[in-house]
Amino acid sequence: MDLQKKLITKGFAHIGREHYHTTAGSGKHTIVVDEPAEMQGTDAGMNPFGLLVSSLGSCTIITLRMYIDRKGWPVDEIQVDLAMYSITGGYLIERNLTIKGNLTEDQLKRLEQIADACPIHKVLTGSVMVETHLQ
Predict the structure, then answer these.
(1) CA-CA distance, 131 to 3, in Å (whole number)?
(2) pLDDT band at 31 (very low <50, low <70, confident <90, very high)
(3) What are the backbone dihedrals phi and psi of residue 128, each rounded to the nearest 5 degrees, phi first?
(4) Which of 51, 79, 100, 107 has its CA 20 to 30 A from that of 35?
(5) In whole angstroms, what is the distance from residue 101 CA to residue 15 CA?
(6) For the residues 37-43, what does the mean pLDDT come to?
(7) What is the pLDDT of residue 1?
(8) Residue 2 — pLDDT band, cuts 50, 70, 90?
(9) How far is Cα 86 from Cα 63, in angstroms, rounded to an integer?
(10) Helix axis angle, 48-71 relative to 105-115, nearest 10°?
């Protein structure tokens, strides 16, 4: 299939022999991804599902903060709590937002719409293709 591709970002992950301690990153930034002890990991970092929901959460509140700052709305703090579930036929991610500030109901409704416009939300709810190439 001939696709027109526009690079958004690059990432990497590396694992050695230690169960399942992984170094992952993008650009000059790295984190540890691991599995908990009950999965024979060392619990030195988030597991991949935790990393996925944390990506959604951080993208959501960054997107909201950008919008709020552009509008000049009085918001002191934004918190997002996420839970991921296995359901029949797929997965469900619940996202609960707490916004501390003096906002109207209309502003809060708009922020709920903006939360759904964050780029990671769009990736997770859109069409995603993964190509694997072995070197």
Answers:
(1) 12
(2) very high
(3) -120, 135
(4) 79
(5) 43
(6) 94
(7) 60
(8) confident
(9) 26
(10) 140
The two three-digit tokens of residue 4, written as one number: 């027109």
Domains along the chain?
1-45 (no CATH), 47-127 (3.30.300.20)
Helix (H, G, I), strand (E, B) or coil at 118: coil
Q: End-to-end alpha-carbon separation of the chain, Å?
A: 20
Provide the 3-class DSSP secondary structure of residue 3.
Answer: coil
Greatest C-alpha distance within the chain = 55
CA distance 129 to 12: 18
pLDDT surpasses 80 at 117: yes
Residue 60 contacts residue 68 (beta carbons within 8 Å):
no
Q: Tokens at residue 110, please?
A: 């708009």
